[in-house]
Amino acid sequence: MVCLSHWLYNKFMNNLIVLNKNDNVGVSQFIIPEKTKIEGHEISTIDPIPFGHKVCLKNY
Q1: What integer is the mean pLDDT of 20-48?
Q2: Cα 27 to Cα 6: distance, rounded to the nearest angstrom
Q3: Would you give the DSSP letter of residue 55?
């Protein structure tokens, strides 16, 4: 069973699911096209992101 507070915190941004605000990764729900800006972060995709793949949310 999912904790309600975690459920309420789930963010859906540009087809990414971020389960916790401290996470530095998101999981794609759909194919994300190349050159898509990730809302709330100063990054964009370089290549298309396949369904179910993890995406780093920080620019290293």
Answers
A1: 87
A2: 15
A3: E
Q: What angle do CA 24, 26, 29 make, to 5 degrees?
A: 180
Q: Is there a contact between 25 and 57 (Cβ–Cβ < 8 Å)?
A: yes
Tell me the residue range of the domain where 29 lies.
Answer: 4-56
Give long-range contacts, CB 8 A cutoff, 24+ apart: 12-17.
Answer: 13/38, 13/39, 13/40, 14/38, 14/39, 16/55, 16/57
Entry pTM: 0.67
Spatial separation of the C-alpha atoms in residues 55 and 24, rounded to whole Å: 8
Report how many domains make up the chain: 1
